[in-house]
Design goal:
alpha/beta; 7-stranded parallel β-sheet; about 15% strand; 16 helices; about 425 residues; Rossmann fold; 13 strands
Length: about 425
């Protein structure tokens, strides 16, 4: 048995995959602690881990980030991303490191394995001399040859014009990320660490082992990833009863549906249903489909009355829903996209901000669904995309192919295997 400290940012899309890994490590007999926000401590304790809540770090409510980080109020798009990076991820990292160092002093661990966006993990690992790994619930799409600049939702370009585009946009993007790299280096000085050579693209990740959700097949073609980057497919904990949750009282309508089932979701971060949920409901109203809307835990009730073919719940258990789903209309949250693809479900993706335009771009480029190229599509665009996905077999075939790859990568068991090998000092470098 080893003592393992995991870290997870207190967001649903981060905590749930890390929880799945924690569950598997506990099942194997390890003593697992998880450093996370107070709102998620209980969920980790439910799977046998010990919760270590944020203390020095300014804990926050993911449903109201602006209450703790006021510069986020009213921000969307790139402005939101920049403030998130500066205030939330970089800004809380020194206090995260202090919390982790105190936990280590009280009870040393054998391995520190963290959510890369919990940047205090890196600082604590360096200051304590710990063996450490990253467990990334978000996409790991590193820059490289032939890869367009990240953050703009671009697909690979060919020929001289394409290379010129990437050069110009890459230069502009580098100017922006240099500012954040400088902020990272200043934060290192603040926690008493010497300079290093990491950049904005790499500063989040352990150079020893990076366990990444997703698959190589969902990225753009490349052969330059370091050997310590290991994709493990879909990190979910939907095999257990707590994750499955209660079924809505209208569930028999889904279980006995004789028409296609379309799942609509804005994930757990967006709260304005007029962005995607309402346009999708309008687009599919009156069609011979059953629309199942998952509102998430922070979206307000939808204005009524709703079309007769729509069913709504705050959360709909994916282990029950996705095997019965024909198409998912989504904002592009990575966890939901991976779960849909694991079940072979093609997608209509409206990726508006954060990493979602990149996810939408890759889904569209591979042909596993339609990229709407906006987070606020018109109903007509959603309708046209849905028609394309259900009438062109290539979308479902590609979703099935990517789903097979995700399943073959092993998920939480593969993640636990890699972490156990890392505990034994096995190198993951090519």
């Amino acid at each position: 048995m080893a003592s393992i400290m995991l870290t997870a940012m207190p967001f649903a899309g981060h905590a749930r995959p890390v929880r799945a890994v924690a569950r598997e490590l506990v099942r194997r007999g390890h003593d697992v602690r998880v450093y996370t926000g107070r709102s998620y401590v209980t969920s980790f304790e439910e799977v046998g881990a010990r919760g270590v809540p944020w203390d020095a770090a300014p804990d926050f409510d993911e449903r109201d980030l602006a209450a703790t980080f006021p510069r986020l109020r009213g921000r969307k798009g790139f402005g939101q991303v920049l403030v998130n990076l500066e205030d939330l991820f970089l800004g809380t990292a020194p206090a995260q490191a202090r919390d982790l160092e105190r936990a280590h002093a009280a009870e040393p661990w054998d391995l520190l394995a963290g959510d890369p966006m919990a940047l205090g993990t890196r600082f604590a690992a360096e200051r304590t001399g710990s063996r450490w790994a990253s467990i990334s619930p978000v996409p790991v799409w590193l820059p490289g040859p032939g890869i367009p600049p990240t953050g703009l939702g671009l697909t690979p370009a060919a020929g001289p014009l394409g290379r010129a585009r990437d050069l110009v946009l890459g230069t502009a993007a580098s100017a922006g990320t240099r500012l954040l790299t400088r902020r990272y280096r200043a934060t290192r000085r603040l926690v008493g660490l010497p300079p290093d050579s990491e950049t904005f693209a790499s500063m989040w990740y352990s150079p020893q082992l990076l366990v990444a959700a997703g698959s190589p097949g969902l990225d753009y073609p490349r052969s330059d990833l370091p050997g310590h980057v290991r994709h493990v497919g879909d990190l979910t904990d939907d095999g257990g009863a707590p994750a499955a949750g209660p079924l809505p009282d209208w569930w028999e309508d889904v279980a006995r549906a004789t028409v296609p089932v379309v799942h609509v979701t804005q994930g757990t971060a967006n709260i304005d249903p007029s962005d995607l949920i309402l346009p999708a409901v309008e687009a599919l109203a009156g069609r011979e489909v059953l629309v199942v809307v998952g509102l998430g835990h922070r979206t307000p009730p939808l204005p009524g009355p709703l079309p007769a073919n729509v069913r709504v719940a705050p959360m709909v258990p994916y282990p029950h829903l996705l095997p019965l789903t024909d198409v998912m209309v989504t904002n592009g949250g990575f966890g939901g996209v991976l779960q849909a693809l694991r079940h072979g479900v093609p997608l209509v993706v409206a990726g508006g901000d954060l990493d979602k335009p990149e996810i939408a771009a890759r889904v569209g480029w591979h042909g596993a669904g339609v990229n709407l190229r906006t987070g606020r599509p018109r109903p007509a665009a959603v309708a046209a995309a849905y028609d394309a996905v259900v009438t062109e077999p290539r979308y479902r075939a590609t979703a099935a192919r990517l789903g097979a790859e995700l399943r073959a990568l092993g998920g939480t068991r593969a993640a636990a295997d890699l972490l156990e090998a890392h505990l034994r000092g096995v190198s993951h470098r090519a």
